[in-house]
């Protein structure tokens, strides 16, 4: 396990680019052209140095920082200034509002690097990345420490209050040298605040250990007891893939959970694949994803265990007995689900397809922020494969890409479902598709909105229950982006990053929809 505590000077940090905890070659040296926002760690391509870093970034740079993290952010960087995983929920100044503490853990068994940051106000944010340290070309003799880049303010000086490091292998010989040094680059200066060098003769796999399990396998009896033997008064809902129950576990440290009992034939190979897949999915971490806590495979039905999200599903608030959502809340839901899909498609080691994006699978928390759930349906796509072929159609046909009738799913099919969801969020009308695979599930909602768009009256499709209380420009964008996503030609649909840019940026151009 590796733990560190970082205190930062609140009056000077906003003027600097940030600080990073790193693991790199020993002895450590500054790569050429690595000043400023490159944090003294990553230079030009000609000076590649294998380095794994956790950055605490306080100065957004359009050259490499994520487009949807324009405030402060925490990132996991592997051999590049571009973050493999990063936080999206921090505002500008959050990392400079007092003492910030961070815990970095690595589990060699699951190859999961996890970072949890506690801000001065007591709130926390977490990120994680799948990372095999043995494959990152890190040497056995390695350096760990902290590095920071100077901005225009030469008086910038972060303060490291304390740090700690430990390894789970007691036989690993370690020695520690603490060194402060100041070096300059051509255009900007970088300060190596503290370097803690150690020699590791054992494998990197034994370096760190996560404190709590990433996923938990529950017994059937445990989940049965938590749901009062799956009683009707504990049932939260039901769908084509199974019933969902509230579960109160005996462990007082565990919050209430949602237990999904899957239906359908489950042979031995399906059960084996299920456990492998769920183990991977439990490692995903994003604020707009419902956390998959664990699973059960020792009973006849397979079961998934999720965090319990209190305000139920988006479907209930759009079409059921839930509170009518304001336009501001709906617009945020659209962005939240976009960020969740972006993480699945681009933020994981391999793209992940959800294949059943719909209001029933969008949960709302206490603040009515949206979380995308139901991860028993997702699949990973190998790099370069692009799509899954020859698979059984999975998902609700009211939201299904017509191209999926041949069993081919891709990120573009997720975009189709996202487009239908956007149209529902804006209009308040339920998607209705004809149950006719040969005709490609013709959808009355998409057809109606498309017709209104071509007549120049797309905003008139807004949910009448809003009584006109909405931003017309935002409404037009949500409806238009929805239509772009549901185009029959997959090649014409935007990718999720482009869709988010069109939704969130009023100055970003939105293409005209073809006839």
UniProtKB/TrEMBL annotation:
TM stretches of this protein: 174-198
Subcellular location field: Cell membrane
Chief subcellular location: membrane
Alphabetical UniProt keywords: ATP-binding, Cell membrane, Glycoprotein, Kinase, Lectin, Membrane, Nucleotide-binding, Receptor, Serine/threonine-protein kinase, Signal, Transferase, Transmembrane, Transmembrane helix
One annotated Gene Ontology cellular component of this protein: plasma membrane
E.C. number: 2.7.11.1
Residues where ATP binds: 260
UniProt-listed SUPFAM superfamilies: Concanavalin A-like lectins/glucanases, Protein kinase-like (PK-like)
Entry annotated with the keyword Transmembrane helix: yes
Topology relative to the membrane: Single-pass type I membrane protein
A GO biological process held by the record: defense response to oomycetes
Gene Ontology MF, one: protein serine/threonine kinase activity
All residue ranges annotated as the Protein kinase domain in the record: 230-511
Similarity comment: In the N-terminal section; belongs to the leguminous lectin family.
UniProt protein name: non-specific serine/threonine protein kinase
Organism annotation: Setaria italica
């Amino acid at each position: 396990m590796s733990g560190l505590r970082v205190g930062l000077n609140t009056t000077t940090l906003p003027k600097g680019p940030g600080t990073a905890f790193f693991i790199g070659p020993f002895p450590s040296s500054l790569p050429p052209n690595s000043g400023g926002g490159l944090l003294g760690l990553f230079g030009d391509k000609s000076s590649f140095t294998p380095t794994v870093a956790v950055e605490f970034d306080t100065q957004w740079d359009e050259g490499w920082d994520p487009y949807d993290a324009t405030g402060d952010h925490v990132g996991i960087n592997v051999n590049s200034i571009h973050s493999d995983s990063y936080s999206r929920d921090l505002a500008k100044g959050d990392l400079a509002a007092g003492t910030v503490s961070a815990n970095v853990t690595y589990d060699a068994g699951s190859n999961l690097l996890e970072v949890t940051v506690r801000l001065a106000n007591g709130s926390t944010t977490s990120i994680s990345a799948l990372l095999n340290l043995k494959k990152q070309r890190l040497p056995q003799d390695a350096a760990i420490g902290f590095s920071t880049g100077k901005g225009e303010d030469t008086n910038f000086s972060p303060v490291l209050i304390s740090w700690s490091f430990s390894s789970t292998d007691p036989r690993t010989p370690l020695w520690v040298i603490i060194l402060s040094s100041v070096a300059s680059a051509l255009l900007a200066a970088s300060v190596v605040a503290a370097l803690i060098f150690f020699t590791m003769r054992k494998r990197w796999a034994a370096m760190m250990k996560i404190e709590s399990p990433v996923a938990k396998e529950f017994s059937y009896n445990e989940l049965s007891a938590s749901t009062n033997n799956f009683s009707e008064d504990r049932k939260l809902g039901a769908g084509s893939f199974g019933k969902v129950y509230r579960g109160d576990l005996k462990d007082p440290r565990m919050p209430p959970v949602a237990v999904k009992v899957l239906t359908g034939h489950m042979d031995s190979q399906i059960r084996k694949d299920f456990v492998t897949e769920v183990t991977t999915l439990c490692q995903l971490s994003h604020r707009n994803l419902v956390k998959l806590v664990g699973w059960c495979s020792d009973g006849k039905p397979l079961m998934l265990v999720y965090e319990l999200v209190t305000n139920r599903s988006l479907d209930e608030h759009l079409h059921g007995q839930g509170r009518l959502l304001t336009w501001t809340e709906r617009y945020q839901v659209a962005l939240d689900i976009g960020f969740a899909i972006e993480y699945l498609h681009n933020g994981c080691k391999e793209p992940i397809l959800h294949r059943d994006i719909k209001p029933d699978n969008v949960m709302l928390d206490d603040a009515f922020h949206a979380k995308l759930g139901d991860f028993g349906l997702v699949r990973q796509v190998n790099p370069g494969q692009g799509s899954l072929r020859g698979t059984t159609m999975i998902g609700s046909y009211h939201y299904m890409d017509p191209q999926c009738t041949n069993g081919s799913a891709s990120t573009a099919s997720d975009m189709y479902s996202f487009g239908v969801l956007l149209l529902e969020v804006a209009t308040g009308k339920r998607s209705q598709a004809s149950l006719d695979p040969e005709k490609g599930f013709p959808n009355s909602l998409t057809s109606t909105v498309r017709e209104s768009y071509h007549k120049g009256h797309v905003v008139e499709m807004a949910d009448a229950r809003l009584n006109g209380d909405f931003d017309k420009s935002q409404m037009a964008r949500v409806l238009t982006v929805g239509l772009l996503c549901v185009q029959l030609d997959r090649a014409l649909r935007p990718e999720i990053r482009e869709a988010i840019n069109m939704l969130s940026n009023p100055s970003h151009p939105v293409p005209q929809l073809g006839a």
